[in-house]
């Protein structure tokens, strides 16, 4: 009961902080004829998917994230409680400690990356951190020591959340302001599309092959996905052609062009 009360209190604090935040000016000005909200929603979806399909680095990253979430979320969300209970003999407190390690690692990783200058190879760093950050999951199914699980999840949290900071910065710097809302929405929707399926199949897979092999697959497949994404999408060439520190913020798209859609910059086409 106390835990729920604390969570509720924090939600109230968050709402209060949100209420005192300053508003920012709209960065997309529509000077065309009024459009029905339902029709505008479908227009935004069309434009968002069009931009996604035309922008190689964005499409490759989202495909990678879909597959990564499918591989790791089932074991973490469904099988981890059984691993803690069956292998370490721990209960709810031990499981909470394991989850807390992931959260603390995520907070530290986020703060560390946010305080540093982004590297030249920002796409490579981000994809490899996500992929190899899940490698410690491979040991969870083979250890009977809780502290090993805690350390493994802490490392996962550091690298996973650190890479997420790079991703958030990348969206702000390389996605035009007129498309940012649509792309961010697609990012959230597409990235988590297979998470329910991952959680649904994790239980049967764990019973079929065992918890240890399931975590081993999650830990080993993730880095392979990262390496494959970098190689197939040629993201190394893309990041060298588009240095974040050298590029200015994209110009806002206004008027009818914002309604009809956005055409990616010429340099995005050249390096697709």
Automatic annotation (TrEMBL):
Compartments, record wording: Cell membrane
Taxonomy, superkingdom: Bacteria
GO MF terms held by the record: transmembrane transporter activity
Matching SUPFAM superfamilies: MFS general substrate transporter
Keyword Membrane applies: yes
GO cellular component: plasma membrane
Transmembrane segments: 57-80, 92-116, 145-171, 183-202, 208-233
UniProt cross-references to InterPro entries, sorted A to Z: MFS, MFS_trans_sf
Topology with respect to the bilayer: Multi-pass membrane protein
UniProt cross-references to Pfam families, sorted A to Z: MFS_1
Primary location: membrane
Key words of the record: Cell membrane, Membrane, Transmembrane, Transmembrane helix
Record protein name field: MFS family permease
């Amino acid at each position: 009961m106390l835990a729920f009360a604390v969570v509720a209190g924090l939600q109230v604090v968050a709402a209060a902080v949100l209420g005192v935040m300053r508003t920012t000016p709209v960065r997309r000005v529509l000077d065309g004829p009024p459009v029905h909200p339902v029709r505008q929603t479908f227009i935004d979806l069309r434009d968002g998917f069009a931009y996604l399909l035309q922008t190689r680095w964005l499409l490759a990253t989202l495909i990678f994230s879909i597959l990564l979430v499918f591989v790791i979320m089932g074991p973490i969300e469904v099988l981890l409680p059984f691993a803690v209970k069956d292998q370490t003999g721990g209960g709810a407190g031990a499981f909470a400690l394991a989850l807390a390690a992931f959260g603390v690692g995520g907070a530290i990783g986020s703060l560390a990356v946010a305080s540093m200058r982004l590297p030249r190879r920002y796409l490579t760093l981000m994809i490899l951190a996500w992929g190899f950050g899940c490698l410690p999951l491979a040991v969870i199914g083979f250890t009977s020591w809780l502290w090993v699980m805690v350390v493994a999840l802490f490392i996962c949290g550091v690298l996973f959340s650190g890479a997420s900071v790079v991703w958030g910065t990348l969206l702000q710097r390389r996605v035009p302001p007129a498309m940012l809302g649509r792309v961010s929405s697609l990012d959230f929707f597409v990235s988590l599309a297979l998470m329910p399926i991952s959680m649904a199949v994790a239980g049967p897979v764990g019973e079929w092959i065992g918890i240890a092999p399931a975590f081993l697959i999650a830990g080993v497949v993730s880095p392979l996905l990262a390496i494959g994404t970098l190689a197939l999408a040629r993201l190394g060439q893309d990041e060298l052609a588009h240095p974040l520190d050298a590029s200015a913020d994209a110009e806002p798209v206004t008027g009818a062009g914002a309604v009809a859609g956005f055409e990616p910059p010429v340099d995005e086409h050249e390096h697709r």
